[in-house]
Amino acid sequence: MLDLDVLVGCCGLAGMGLGEYARRFPAIELQSTFYRLPRTPTAERWKKAAPSVAFTLKAFQGITHPPDSPTWRRSGIEIEGVSPEEVGLLRVSKFTKEAWQRTEEVADILDAKVIVIQLPPKYDYSARNLSRLSEFLSSVSTRRIPAVEFRHASWLGRLQEARKVIEPHDGVVVTDPLKMSPPDQPIQYHRMHGSNGLVNYGHKYTNEELSLLQQKVEGSKAYVFFNNLAMREDAERFLQARTQS
């Protein structure tokens, strides 16, 4: 069991430098690692700049997203010398396993307890995709907790089923407790993408929604990360509400 209560923060720096961020929030989910993994000195510098912050990070996109994903174009990375059939979608290949190993090495430097596996929207529910998830997790080390986020609506009624596949690898399912019932798991990992749909980055959480979120996480061990345009303000309001409760 992790030594945490409810750790709150943002998905990314929310427009701040790391030093300022560390003065405001106890936890951060790094987004940049999805696009490009940092060199060792860079990760060491991050940890030194924010030693009290609980880091988590997103796994490198080569594990989850195929070469035709627009995320690759945004990263500016060219995939050379590797068959497209070896990249993304949790395929078990030399490429994906090395990408996971490098992601874990960064997590080790940051002492990040959790690595987020954000699946692409096209990764829908099917027996094959469920099996592929199991096969990938079985093929790699899981020194850090793999937190799997499903972004296709077909998974919403099947999170308990997914949890059964992830549990043997000490993993958890990523949820938004305002939209779905989280599976029973040792820790909860919540990513808040806004209301009214699976993802609505323009949404600003109301006081009533933050109060309900507080009720949902009370008594649990959880990470709560906001990932909307108003993430900084919403996360600060949620933290303030927690200290006043």
What assembly state would you assign to the polypeptide chains in this entry?
A: single chain
Shape: globular
CATH architecture: Alpha-Beta Barrel
Kindly give the count of domains: 1
Cα-based radius of gyration, to the nearest Å: 17 Å
Q: Write down the CATH class.
A: Alpha Beta
Q: What is the CATH superfamily classification?
A: Protein of unknown function UPF0759
Strand order in space, largest sheet: 1-2-3-4-5-6-7-8
Low-confidence stretches: none
The N- to C-terminal Cα distance equals 25 Å
Beta-strand content bin: 15-25%
Q: In DSSP terms, counting alpha (H) and pi (I) runs of 4 or more, how many helices?
A: 9
Class based on secondary structure composition and strand pairing:
alpha/beta
Would you list the SSEs in sequence order as H and E? Answer: EHEHHEHHEHEHEEHEH
Please provide the count of β strands: 8
Query: Could you describe the largest sheet, including whether it forms a barrel?
Result: 8 strands, parallel, barrel
Helix content: 25-40%
- CATH topology title: TIM Barrel
**What's the overall average pLDDT, rounded?**
95
Please describe what this structure looks like.
This protein is an alpha/beta fold and 245 residues long. The chain has a single domain, classed as Protein of unknown function UPF0759 (TIM Barrel, Alpha-Beta Barrel). Helices cover 37% and strands 16% of the residues. It has helices spanning 18-24, 32-35, 40-49, 70-75, 94-110, 127-139, 159-166, 207-217, 231-244, and strands at residues 6-11, 27-30, 54-58, 114-118, 145-149, 172-175, 188-192, 222-226. The chain has an 8-stranded parallel β-barrel. Helix 1 (18-24) links the parallel strand 1 (6-11) and strand 2 (27-30). The longest helix has 17 residues, at 94-110.
